[in-house]
Amino acid sequence: MIYLDYQATTPVAPEVAAAMRPWIEEKFANPHSPSKWGREAAAAIEVARDQVVRALERAGGRFAFTSGATEALNWALKGTFETASKRKLVTVATEHAAVLDSAEWLEGKGIEVIRLHVGADGLVDLEMAEAMIDDRTAIVAAMLVNNEIGVIQPIAELAKMAHRAGALMLCDSVQGFGRMPIPDGPDMIAVSGHKIHGPKGVGGLWMRAGAEPSPLLHGGGQEQGLRSGTLSPALCVGMGEAARLAGERREADQTHIEKLCQLALTTLGQDWIINGNMTQRYRGNLNLRRDRLDGARLISDMRNIAFSLGSACASGSGRPSHVLRAIGLTDAQARSSIRLGFGRYTGEEELASACRRINEAAHSQAQLPA
């Protein structure tokens, strides 16, 4: 199988699997136990925490492990409004479901929610953002790299607007962490382990000092008194090692991905249209459409190539992508779109082969009677 679905998840790095193995097998102690083995497990988690923070390139603040970025984003939003005197949230229409569904839930609790529109390029209108972010705003939430179309939002500028209004800035950095520098400005940053060649089931929230949200999960307060629940040393160690590798290999990974992107575009040719801004984007995410293409049928036809129509979190709903609708695509154009994601372990020849086969199948579809 040729795997081209890196936005959904990434292959676990061999170094990560090796680092996790002892904590799955013989080193199974509860890291919150006072025993020698428990203290050893707790120390391994602290090493992993430091590795993640170094990869985030943040000085100060606190990082708490969570079950993933979905929990981190829910916690950041709901926990902030638990104590905030201001009752307004400003976010972007193309955010991940973890933010948009949390925003809808908050609306039911009386929070005013502004969902900023984006242009045809997928980028937020900064003038509109500045008009909407006012002194009633408690938090501004925006994604660094869009998970469906790969565009990079102006996070630093949005953070400045938030701070001028006395609001906090939350950045969903899941698709950007480990792949590019995270801009200065956010007060909270959500990240995930399995998008950086780490394990699933672990992520985290970095918080600037003084910006910590109220706890979402109550119990033993095991994670710095901010989150309850027994941590998995294996998952934390795996995410830490993945973060260390991402920092060490970021430049090499970026060079490789730039080469892969150009190869894919050259191989696919002129019949495809890229969805979203082509310059202000992460190059390992190509969301493309082609006239008269049935993307779902194409995926079914290409049984030995893994790619997607968009967000894995929304797959199976039968509805066109909210991101593609937000950039102005019709339902037909959205259904004619596919997402190719590649990265560290994608080979040039396998990518070229996959693109040729996708092209051939798409061309065959175009020959069928309308």
Describe this structure in words.
The structure is a single chain. The chain is of the alpha/beta class. The chain folds into 2 domains: 2-8 and 249-358, Aspartate Aminotransferase, domain 1 (Alpha-Beta Complex), CATH 3.90.1150; 14-245, Type I PLP-dependent aspartate aminotransferase-like (Major domain) (Aspartate Aminotransferase, domain 2). The chain has helices at residues 14-24, 36-56, 69-83, 97-107, 126-132, 155-164, 233-268, 295-301, 322-326, 331-335, 348-366, and strands at residues 2-3, 62-66, 88-92, 112-116, 137-143, 168-172, 188-192, 203-207, 273-274, 285-289, 305-306, 337-341. Strands 2-8-7-6-5-3-4 form a 7-stranded mixed beta sheet, sandwiched between helices. A 3-stranded antiparallel beta sheet has the order 9-10-12. Strand 3 (88-92), helix 4 and strand 4 form a beta-alpha-beta unit. Helix 2 packs parallel to helix 7 (233-268), helix 3 packs parallel to helix 4 (97-107) and helix 7 crosses helix 11 (348-366). The protein is globular. The mean pLDDT is 95.
